[in-house]
Amino acid sequence: MENGGRVMSDEPKILIVEDDAQIADIVRDSLREQGMLVEVAADGIGMDAKMRALDFDLIVLDVMLPGEDGFSICRRLRGSGDIPILMLTSVSSDIDRVVGLEIGADDYVTKPFVLRELIARIKGLLRRSRLTSSRVESPRKRLFRFDGWRVDPIRRQVHDPSHARIAMTTHEFDLLLAFCQNAGRVLTREQLLAVTHAGLAGPIERSIDVHISRLRQKLEVDPRDPVLLKTVRLGGYIFTAVVEETDG
């Protein structure tokens, strides 16, 4: 059905932004076999047109595109929303992976990739980003509050002290939720990787540090001198805020 010119559907809606038609077709057909609604765009202009017509649940974004490249597109998308983004690239260096994470990508897969693994990562991101409409709500909705901030684990929303909603990637939200649930405790990088699956972008512990840095940019008054989210030398990280769990 349609609503206000936008196509509405219950299936997970995936947008593949990939200029290699063969790769795009293979991924599209495989995801459709999994019951997903899939659209393909060859560049940023095509992506924008598709997004005006449909509200997507996840974007698979190639880095090397004609015109605007994938890094620029990711930065632009992240500046206006929190849709999960999985980046594809033929460049396998850790530097490029970290750049992708720093600008807001949720996961990073290098070519050539194993199709089954790519689909598993897409499903994993979708599971962690689904909103209340796809879940059974408990009778009482619990919220976490600290220093005027509000974290809603069910709707996966974060509001700052001025009540403005703060866009966060899947991993940023998972990290914040883990810290709220463990306020005052030191969490190691290994524990955070296990909780958030943030290591999926590659076998690099630095992926957690990148997500922490982005989270500080959104939470701290001065990210260079963090007060809420502190580094514990040789330990990990600790969330120092006094967190209250309340009814919604």
Highlighted features:
four-stranded antiparallel β-sheet; cytoplasm; Arc Repressor Mutant, subunit A; disordered N terminus; five-stranded parallel β-sheet; globular; alpha/beta; DNA-binding; Rossmann fold; 14 strands; 248 residues; 37% helix
Residues in helices, as a percent range? 25-40%
- Classified in CATH, the superfamily of the largest domain is Response regulator
CATH classification, class level of the largest domain: Alpha Beta
User: What general form does the structure show?
Assistant: globular
| Fold-level CATH name of the largest domain | Rossmann fold
Strand order of the largest sheet: 4-3-5-6-7
Quick check: average pLDDT?
A: 84
Tell me the major beta sheet. 5 strands, parallel
Q: Please identify, by name, the CATH architecture of the largest domain.
A: 3-Layer(aba) Sandwich
Q: Roughly what fraction of the amino acids lie in strands? A: 15-25%
Query: How many distinct beta strands?
Result: 14
Give the C-alpha Rg. Answer: 18 Å
Integer count of domains: 2
Q: Element order, helices and strands?
A: EEEHEHEHEHEHEEEHEHHEEE
Helix segment count?
8
Structure description:
- Helices cover 37% and strands 22% of the residues.
- The chain is built from 8 helices and 14 strands.
- It has helices at residues 21-33, 44-53, 70-80, 94-102, 115-129, 170-181, 189-196, 206-219, and strands at 2-3, 6-7, 13-17, 37-41, 58-62, 85-89, 107-110, 142-146, 149-152, 157-159, 186-187, 229-232, 236-239, 244-247.
- Helix 6 (170-181) packs across helix 8.
- It is an alpha/beta fold.
- Residues 1-8, 131-140 and 199-204 have low confidence and may be disordered.
- The protein has 2 domains: 2-130, Rossmann fold; 142-247, Arc Repressor Mutant, subunit A, CATH 1.10.10.
- Strands 4-3-5-6-7 form a 5-stranded parallel sheet, sandwiched between helices. Strands 10-9-8-14 form a 4-stranded antiparallel sheet, covered by helices on one side. The chain has a 3-stranded antiparallel sheet with strand order 11-13-12.
- The longest helix has 15 residues, at 115-129.
- Residues 141-241 form the OmpR/PhoB-type domain.
- Residues 13-126 form the Response regulatory domain.
